Amino acid sequence: MVKIQTETARWVYEFSESNQLAHLPELIMLGYDHFQEASPLVIHQHERSYEYVFVDSGKVTWEVDGQLITSHTGQIFHTRPGEWHRARLNFIEPCRIWWMILLDPSEHVGWLNLPDEERMEIHNQLQKLPRIIPVDIRVRELFTKLRDIIEHYEPLASCRIRHYVLDIILQMLNPSSNRQISFDLQKAMFTLTETIQAAPEKRWTNKDLANQIGVSESHFYRLFHLMYGQSPANYMDRLRIELACQILLQKEISITTVAMDLGYKTSQHFATVFKKYMGLSPSQWRR
After folding, report:
1. Helix (H/G/I), strand (E/B), else coil: 26
2. What angle do CA 201, 207, 211 make, to 5 degrees?
3. Distance between CA atoms of residues 240 and 259, nearest Å
4. What pLDDT, in 10s, does the model give residues 81-133?
5. Which of 58, 147, 164, 257 is deepest in the core (most CB within 10 A)?
6. CB 52 within 8 A of CB 78
7. Are strands 3-7 and 10-14 parallel, antiparallel or unpaired?
8. How far is residue 70's CA from residue 57's CA, in Å, rounded to a whole number?
9. Which element (helix H / strand E) includes 270?
10. Structurally, what CATH architecture does the domain formed by 3-173 represent?
11. 183-286 topology per CATH
């Protein structure tokens, strides 16, 4: 039987030579997690394998070789074979994610039944991928189909699994989410988010931000959601809470001071927002 671990908010498939998908060793693991509060995710690596994490909802901040990388809803974060990585501060934020650990194409002749020329071309392109890839929301459907096939072991299961896994890979190699956004506008948006990050305590309105890049308020909102998978307000709240998590580790700084420094009018409001995103109160996180 296929080895499956099922919990309230977690589903995992793991390859085994004795299961019905024994002739599909490329797919080492596949899983889904719904983290309703900040949860441990410590440093680890995957020898000879890539890991791909699709953020279905929320935001995740990763650390790879000392560098912090943030992935948002509708984006895939990936690590290359042997890279050590973890969630920031060893805790993953509340989120929903699909993830897949896939053998390096260069390690397996017949990888996903592809001829050697195509297999090595995919290997070469994967080596050049940016750490964060925006993908079509259809990727969620592909992961859901993979789970369905594995759980019910439908006819031609191996063939269909190869097809959907390859579809996910090709979506990463040919991302489409930002094609309709001009390079100049993307650059302006990146500069804008850097401005927001430099002054997290400031209470920006959508109108303020839209004026910064010279577009209408409604167009700015759609543009921001397309690029970052969330509203500007959610983005700014998550940024403040991310900073709060780091500051709260300094136990000599009071929770009220943290709240005021990040622009919250009261510590109660800060605690409410903190628990919304972290699933814990500031004092619980500090402990």
Report:
1. coil
2. 100
3. 9
4. 999 999 998 999 889 999 999 999 999 999 999 999 999 999 999 999 999 99
5. 58
6. yes
7. antiparallel
8. 13
9. helix 267-278
10. Sandwich (2.60)
11. Arc Repressor Mutant, subunit A (1.10.10)
